[in-house]
Design a protein that fits this description.
This protein has a four-stranded parallel beta sheet, with helices on both faces. By secondary structure, the chain is of the alpha/beta class. Strand 5, helix 3 and strand 6 form a beta-alpha-beta unit.
């Protein structure tokens, strides 16, 4: 599996699932057109772009390009790379009918096609030295700090999310991804909760 430095932005959870089987990266969903009305998610994208850079990988249909262009207008262009998947006609396995334009989306692409699109976009691949596991914030660290799996952990997570200016609807796993992308384990352990 290839590790990608940049944060990858996709349209939905099925796209995220397909991509997470190909690369080890922080992957953020736009919830389709939901990004248009989600100021918190736009702030998160700007924050992540400033820290790690973004790669936008949307479907090759009209809706995908609309979302891609919207993100172009929200985030500093020099911090964004664009990965394009080819036009492949067909339908995804989980769907009963093809999309309106008849094209496969990110979720329907073969793994090598997704990887090739990221490479063409200029993704920073690091196969040899992924962030050392000891340097990463773990689920056990979240538990030890009272941010998951304990009474009152949802409240403490909500307070931390608010203090860090992150979207309030982040799950514990999504928060873990964002924390690992924006700070070291040592910095996390120094946060006063």
């Amino acid at each position: 599996m290839h590790s990608v430095k940049e944060v990858i932005v996709v349209e939905g959870r099925y796209d995220k699932n397909a991509l997470s089987q190909v690369v080890d990266a922080v992957i953020i969903e736009t919830s389709g057109f939901g990004i248009f009305n989600d100021a918190q998610k736009r702030r998160l994208l700007n924050t992540m772009a400033g820290v790690r850079g973004l790669i936008v990988m949307t479907d090759s249909d009209g809706a995908g390009f609309l979302i891609r262009n919207y993100i172009k207008g929200c985030v500093e262009p020099s911090l964004v790379k664009h990965a394009y998947i080819p036009d492949v006609y067909g339908k995804e396995r989980r769907k009963s009918a093809p999309s309106r334009e008849g094209k496969l989306g990110v979720e329907g692409m073969r793994p090598q096609v997704l990887l090739d699109a990221l490479i063409r976009a200029g993704a920073t691949l690091d196969d040899s030295s992924q962030q050392k596991r000891a340097d990463r914030i773990s689920k056990a660290d979240m538990y030890a700090r009272g941010l998951s799996g304990r009474e009152g952990s949802a409240q403490r997570r909500a307070e931390l999310v608010k203090r860090l200016g992150l979207p309030e609807r982040l799950t514990a796993d999504a928060l873990l991804d964002v924390l690992n992308a924006t700070m070291s384990r040592e910095q996390f352990m120094d946060i006063q909760l």
